[in-house]
Amino acid sequence: MFLLGNFLLALAKLINIILSAYTWIVIARAVISWVNPDPYNPVVRFLIQVTEPVLSRIRKVIPPLGGLDLSPVLLILAIVFLQSFLGPTLQQLAMSLQ
Q1: Is residue 3 predicted with pLDDT exceeding 90?
Q2: Structural contact between residues 97 and 12, judged by C-beta atoms closer than 8 angstroms
Q3: By Cβ atoms counted within 10 A, which residue in 47, 52, 63, 86 is the most buried?
Q4: Whole-number pLDDT of residue 60
Q5: What does the pLDDT read at residue 65?
Q6: N-to-C CA span, the chain
């Protein structure tokens, strides 16, 4: 059980790091959308490829309101919720196994 507890603690930390990194990627994508970025720039292409699948799903549910796209904000809120729920839940489960 000790190994499983350590594994769950490591998994919780890894999930938190990945979600934090993805939050920054979403923020970067939102910032570059305010300017007219070069669509052939590899950084711009990466940001679009990584975020568009999730953002497009959100846009299907909540379309832009008056030209204002709230999908990045909603995605960040969802990430914060996951970080607040999933990380501590895994940590508590890991501590109960030790």
Answers
A1: no
A2: no
A3: 47
A4: 93
A5: 84
A6: 6
